[in-house]
Structures are given as C-alpha cells and as structure tokens.
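Lab notebook: predicted structure, single chain.

Context: the supervisor wants predicted structures on file for every construct in the current expression panel, including those that have not yet been purified. This is the next one on the list. No modifications to the sequence; it matches the entry in the shared construct table.
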Amino acid sequence: MSDIIFMEQALAQARQAAASGEVPVGAVVVRRGEVIATGRNAPVDGHDPTAHAEIAALRAAAQALGNYRLDDCELFVTLEPCAMCSGAMLHARLKRVVFGAPDPKTGAAGSVVDLFAESRLNHQTHLQGGVLAAECSELLQAFFRRRRDEQREASRLAHPLRDDALRTPDAAFDALPSYPWMPRYVSDLPALLGLRMHYLDEGGGGTQGGEGGLTFLCLHGNPAWSYLYRKMIPPWLEAGHRVVAPDLIGFGRSDKPKKESFHCFSAHRQILLELVERLDLQNVVLVVQDWGGLLGLTLPMAAPQRYKGLLVMNTTLGTGDAPLPAGFVAWREMCAKNPEFDVARLFARGNPQMSLEECAAYNAPFPDKGHRAALRAFPPMVPDSPDADGAAVSRQARAFWQNDWTGRTSMVVGAQDPVHGPPVMQQLQAVIRGCGEPLVLPQAGHFVQEHGGPVAQQAVDFFSPRA
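Prediction complete. Output recorded below exactly as produced.
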C-alpha cells in the first residue's frame, strides 16, 4: 500500500510539470518511509537536458542528507527511467527503484535495455515497475493529446483552408505504423494559391545535412503518398543524410481541391520546382516512381547544379510521342470504371508481405469521395499526345537525360509490375546517360518502395561520395 501512496505523490509532481508545459514526469525519494525529496521534469524551462524528474529528486535528496550515496533510499517515478537517470540511480546506490508506466522508446529498466539487470556493475538496485501504471500512462497520453491538438490548431490558423478544398482530419494519420516523423507544411508558394502542402524534412536538423551529406528528394505517385517511403527513410537518416518527402496536392496530408479540374501536369510540376527552391535543396539524389517520375524527371534540367544522383523506380517519361504502355492503359480504364476503388486493397494485392495496418494507412488520406479528386484526375493527366500538357517539357527532359545529365543513376525495377515493368524500364534506361544495368527485384511489383530497406541501403553505398 505504501508504494501506491508514494507513487501518488510522484504523480502530483508530474501534474505540476504538465502545468508548466513540461512532459509530465514526477519523482519522490523516500527514506525509512518518509519523503525526503521531490522532483519534476523541467528540461524546457531550465534549458537543461539533464533536468529529468529523477535527477532533480536525487540532487535534492543528496543535499538533504549531505551525501551523494543514497543506499538506504527508494525512488518512485511515474515513468520508466531512461539510461541517464538509471545510471544516476545506480551511481547513487539506491536501495530500490519503483516506476509507473513503461517507456517503450527510451526505457532503460527493461523496455529498451535493462541497466538494473547488468550483473557486471558494482551495485545492484532492486527494481519494480507497473505501480499505478494506468494512471501514469493516462497523464502522459493526455498531455501529448493536448499538445497535438494545440499544434493542429496552430497549423490551421497558419494555413487556413480554402473554401474549394478539403483537408483530411489529422486524426486519420495518428498512430500509423512506422511513420513517426513530424509533419511540415507550406502554403505561401505562388503556385499553391493558398493550398497547404505537407512534406517531411528529416536529417541534418532540417537543413542540408552534414558536410558532404546528400538530400534524398522522394516523390510519390498515384494513389500513394509520402508513407510510401517509410522503409527507405531510416537507412538514409542513419547514414547522416537529409530526406525530403512531399505529398503532392490532393494526396497524403496535403490539401485536396474539390474539383478535378485543379489538377494538371504544369501546376504540379511548378509546385515542386518552387518547393525545391524554397527549401534550397542541394546535393540532391532524386528518388522517383510512378507519377513521382513523370513529374520529377522534368525537374533537374531547371537547376542541374542542385542534383547529384537519380534513383529511379518503375516509372516513365510522358513525352506524348510514343504509345502509352499497355499496362498503363489498362490501369487508366480500371480507374475510369471504378473511381472509388479501394486503395488499401490495391496495395494488399500487389504486396502480400504488408500488414493490414500498413495497407489501411494508404486509405487514410481519402476518407470519402470528396477527398479523391486527385485519384480520379491523375490517370487521364498522363501525356498521351504531342500537344498534351506536360508532353513538351517531358521531351525537353528526355533530351536533358540523354545529353546533359552528369550525375550518377541507379535504377531498380519491380519485375511483377504490370504497368511499368522491365520492358518499360529498359526503354527508360536507354534514355538516361550513364545508367547501368538495373537491379531487378523478382518479388516486387509496382511499388518498389515496399521492398525498400535494402534498396535504400544500396543507395547509401552507391551515392555516397567516393574517396
């Protein structure tokens, strides 16, 4: 019963931390059944990365006793301690540590690592978890819910929604598997006309990355969004590079114009050009697939000095002077006949290795018919005649890739793709100057990114500056 009483006092400290805008974690130090010190999280207020609740409580207890050894003391904390705090507890030679909620991301008392079980250390502290775990977890969850709501409201005020557009509720994107990155938005690019565009910008503190680092610019196609790159982003970040992955207007977390007539090749290309300029992307490896290639392959010729590499997967150039692949024509006819097709089912059919939750994530941006204008508009937008929108600039891009491209190119092909499979990609290979033999993935279909971990790691090795 005393454990509950002391954890309730730690919870009181955690509530004080929350009231101050800090992550709600509280701690108390108990000696012989009496609280001798308290602590609460204060790293933000104190500009101190060590100002965790446990550290504050340990410092106060040591001052109260006049001794940094606390071998007859117990510490109660509402959240499983991290490695820093666990180390301090062991160094203080606490008799016992009791925590409330587990921390699956940074917990060092069993969730990620267990320093308390390390027998090689010269002191062992008894550990107990789960005391008032539900109450401790709810306090943390409520804090982060409020923070997300505040961020959403701030974003809404900063990027007001146009009357002729829709915005998928942010809650649709909560807790998507393997997609932990912070959303970023821009709405003042001239070509956006006030629409809000979402993009990921990770690595290098959102700047250029480290000296000599690369920027992987990842462009998705239809009906995907930046979630498509979730398996490829981590290897690039771990290698110290920057990753930028926008959602095209009409897709993902970007705004969705209600009318299909908004969507045209030239408008989407101009938005991407302006985004590259706004973010001042340098040392770019352009990563494209599907519509990401139709649009993206026309970008480098506008600013070739920005681009160092090309990672190209199952796509083509829409030059309008050659017949469209038969597989694409069949896809376009399917979309016309079934405009409300199930996006999750599409991914599940071609990617049996994906979980149901991953497949469902592709449906998240499109909760109803009104949000699907881009899905209906994009198939007819592929240039299919010499004077179609985008055809002329695509022919200019073809000449650029044939004659002027000086960067390195890696081509990866999903062999099972009925739309842009090996025959289509061989034609594209012949267009790109210096493009070597493609890596063909026998098990992959149209969405190569769903097999993207090894592909991303290979790209790190291929595009990294050579000594």
